[in-house]
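Minutes, structural biology subgroup

Action item carried over from last meeting: produce the C-alpha cell record for N-(5'-phosphoribosyl)anthranilate isomerase (Paenibacillus gyeongsangnamensis). EB confirmed the sequence was re-checked against the source entry. Recorded below for completeness.
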Amino acid sequence: MTSVKICGLVSEEQVLAVASLPVDHIGFVFARSKRQVTPVQAGAWIRRMKEARGDDRPLAAGVFVNFSREELAAVLEEAPLDVVQLHGQEDAAYCRWLKEAYPGLQIFKVITLTGGAGSRETSPELVIQERLQSYQPYVDGILLDTFDPVYGGGSGKTFAWEAIPPYQAWCREAGVRLIVAGGLNPDNVNELLESYRPDGVDVSSGVETEGMKDMDKITSFVGRVKRFV
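Output recorded by EB:
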C-alpha cells in the first residue's frame, strides 16, 4: 500500500490529530520555512505522540537543507526522529556518516525538479548516473519534489510527472522507495497514483486552508491514497 507523509506540522494538536489517521510519516521542518519548528518543540510533540499512540504511530521525519553534521546532530539530540529528509546538496559521504552514526535512522534524499519537464540540474538519466548510484548504499528513499528558490526545500508546486519513470526504474532496481511530493492535494493524488504508482506520497500545502493544516483535507487526502489499490 502507498505510504502517506503529512509534512509541516507545527503544533501538538496537529501531531495528535494526524497521528490518529492511517498515515505512515509525519514531518517537521527544521530548515528555514514558514513552517519551521524548533528541535525542542518537535521532540516534545514526538514524545507526546508516542505516549498517546504507542507502537501504532506514524514515523517522525525531519526536513533539513544543508545542515552541517554538528547542526543535524544537535537536532537529533532533542528530537527522536525516525527519518531524516535531506533537501540540499548533501552528498553520499554525508548520508554514510548518518547511517553509521545513527543505526536504524532512515534517510530520504530529495531530488529537486523544476515545475516544467526534467530536473533543474540535468536530465534524469544523468542525475541517476552521476548522483543516485553513489547514494544507493546509504538511503532508504528517493523523494522527488519541486525546487523552492527562496527556502531551498519544496515549493508546493507540481513538476512534470513524465520525469518519474527513470527514477522509479532505478529505485526498483536498487531496492529503494520512490516518494513523490510537490503540489499534491486531494483532487490530483489519484491521478498520480493511477499513472505512476509511486511507493509513497508527501503533502504539506496541499492539505492546508489559508496556510493552516485543514483536517478535512488531510482526512480526504489520506483516505483517497489508502483506498487506492
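Discussion: Residues 18 and 26 are 8 Å apart (CA to CA).
Next step: EB to file the record with the rest of the batch.
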